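[scheduler] slot 2 assigned
[scheduler] job type: sequence-to-structure, two independent chains
[scheduler] chain ordering preserved from manifest
[runner] begin chain α
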Amino acid sequence: MLPTRVSNPFRPIDRRLRLGALAAAMALLTACGGGGAPGKDANSTAQAAIPVEVASASHQSVTANYSGTATLEAVGDAQVVAKTTGIVLKILVEEGMHVQKGQVLAMLDDDAARNKLAQATGTLKKTQAAYDKSEKGVALKITPRADYDRDKYDLETQKAVVDGAQLDLSYTRIVAPISGVVAKRSIKLGNLVQTNQNLFQIVDMDPLQAVLNVPERDLDTLKPGQSVQMRVDALTGKSFEGTIARIAPVVDAASGTFRATCEFRDSTRTLKPGMFGRIEVAYDQRHDALVVPRSAIVEEDGESSVFTVESAPPKPAAPAATKGKPGEAVAAEQAKPALPSFVAKRRLVKTGYAEGDRVEIRDGLKDGERVITIGRNAVRDGTEVQVLGDTPQALAGAPTGGKAS
């Protein structure tokens, strides 16, 4: 006889109990996690806003400047060369000394030159005596006219020889051709110098000049007599005043520029030839101009624009759920109001003068409107932004929206 299977009446009941407990646990987990999901979405929206820094457009005084760079040059720069051969016997000046035109700088051995002058002088006396005798003979009609003319020409020639010998003697005294400062000494005592050898360099540093190569579009902007300011890289914190001495009458066809020569007079002798200077010429000024930082200007496709910060359309508030006890219904709280949000708006503007880090806005913006200065490369028209260093409530009070007149 086969064994008879006995059914367990409690096994279906245990299964139903396990399924019910699992369903209750899932409902409890769902109720507990339901309040966290909306918060996560809100954080994702906040993180999507681009952080930016802004500045307000305001009325200020702005000066129109032309800026350029140039190297300082001396007006007078003379190389003193030897005009005769000789040994250096004396050096009377050193580098850095100020000398006057005609001042003796050095002396060469002049024995040979003096001997030559003595010989020429003796011959001149002999020639002069012969001429005087011929002159008397012609007066008495006992000397032929041809002999008189020969003696006369010999006298004139010998006088020229004496003058040449005196000139050679003067060349043994090295003198300054211009007034200025001794910039370089190229000889030492006892040196044998040759004709045309460089001995000294003299630089006239009053005034100093700097030549600007200015684009031809500014030809009507710069004028002779305008004041200029120069800053030198080697002299931090110092500014030197000068004037435009002259404007070149022609434009270089190859570079499209013209030369503007500026002069600087420095009684302290702080400026030196060869220094690199940054020159600014102020040619106009507006006392009530609307300006923004230069970093706010976007140049693209030949147009200038800025990104302003404007209020975004309000978003619907999401209801916040509260957790309930097991077995109780979940009650909805009153919806919290959404904080104001802001977006970047591209605005075409017309720029004017630029001074330092400020740019004049002639059209396209109103006083008080805020423009993005840092972070503008990361935004586009309509991008949601977060203003750093300011609360949304404070930003809401700034002028936004509306096309500027």
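[runner] end chain α
[runner] begin chain β
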Amino acid sequence: MTSLTNSAAPEAHFVFRQFFLKATRLAGRVLTSLAVIGAITFVFFRVFPVNATTTGFFYLVAILMIATAGGLVESTIASIAAMLCFNYFFLPPIGTLTVADPQNWVALFAFLATSLIASQLSARAKRRTKEAIARQHEVERLYSLSRSLLLTEPTRPMPKQIVQSISQAFEFPAVALYDRSNDQVYRAAEGDLTELDTRLREAALRSTLGDGASGFTIVPIRLGGQPIGSLAIRDSSLSDAALQSLVNLVAIGMERAASQEAVNRAEIAKRSEELKSILLDAIAHEFKTPLTSVKAVTTDLLSDTTNQLPQHQRELVNIADEGIDRLSKLVNDAIQLARIEGGQFQLNRGIYSPNALISAALRQMKAFVEGRTINLSISVDMPPVWVDADLIQMVITHLLDNALKYSPSGTPIAINATSRNGRVIICVADRGPGIGEAEQARIFEKFYRGKTDRSLKGFGMGLAIAREIISAHGEQIWVASGLGKGSEFCFSLPVAQEGAATNEHR
């Protein structure tokens, strides 16, 4: 309650002070007008006596000048004063406000009507001239503001530059702008304007004009029907059209700033992603050379038929050889993911049989599927597909590896291929613990691993690579699963058309 009282007191004082200044200036102009009428009366009654017609003419000229220099109020009061002086000093009987000759009554009222009409016409012409000049100045200032908004510096906050540009272009003593996107108020004024913060937020939320208390005009800023902020300006003499144009310019400036910020964030994210891909590719290649050397050693030791190695050492070499295979697969996955994300790979498409693709993938996974039951269901009349064979085989091996890791060792893995709606659908199904509905939206993300068993080996790159490869072919990959019901991963492939190209760059 105290804060409201404290803020209302200076507002009432400001309003009273403005009213007093206006009344004082008007009173001064009225006294000046009466002084002019008095001077004409004194000169032509005492100094240079002339006839009533000449005096009336000078009264009319003076009233026109007063209307031109002042306004309607001053010229109207001057007209009444001139009529009274004309009657008292120049129409018989002199020295009284009565008129003896009826013709003089007609002349008196004709003089009063002429002076009033002339003063009104002159005041109206002056008002229209002032309005035209004011509108011209408004247009010039709006143009200056639009140029300032186009030449803003990207390194400084856009709302702060907007309020400074408005203050400079329109010479407002105080400007405040509320940006709803970050809930910040930006000011350009001398003194503290924090009392405006609440009213600015209310104007933005309610999309209503604020009151003119303390001399501020508060207007909401909307873009596309949605409130994005509000603007407060002090001592605004702008027309409604100019004020609305000003608000529209501010809205466009704020939207431009938001768009530029989004573009900058996207560019930063893109460069960061490219840098990560480059680093990942470089590190993976550094790993690949020593792994190749170690693999050659273990392969040579295991292929030795002289059995010079003791049994326990041979088992250790076997374990090392299997570990090298897993590590090599992770390195290859990292290289492939880096190339895919960096756009540095190409699709070498050709026409292939789905059966051949699946068989080739199973041969690559031979060491991992030994002892597991693989149920194949592939139609013999399956149409050929137009794909990059190496990449599609990689997708199948990733899905098969995923099924082997997440399903019990005694359960079978099902692979089937069907033709539907001009597409070949290949599915890999397991009888594992399944995937919850909430988790299904994330399993194709990079480095995301399921919550089922964190002890399983892997870095969560396989499904992300599979998704990118299928997307590069213009197709889709999806999962059908439920907790306790196993999982089935499926992807579509395009059927080969006659005259299909064989090399597509990505």
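[runner] end chain β
[qc] chain β: The CA atoms of residues 107 and 446 lie 99 Å apart.
[scheduler] slot 2 released
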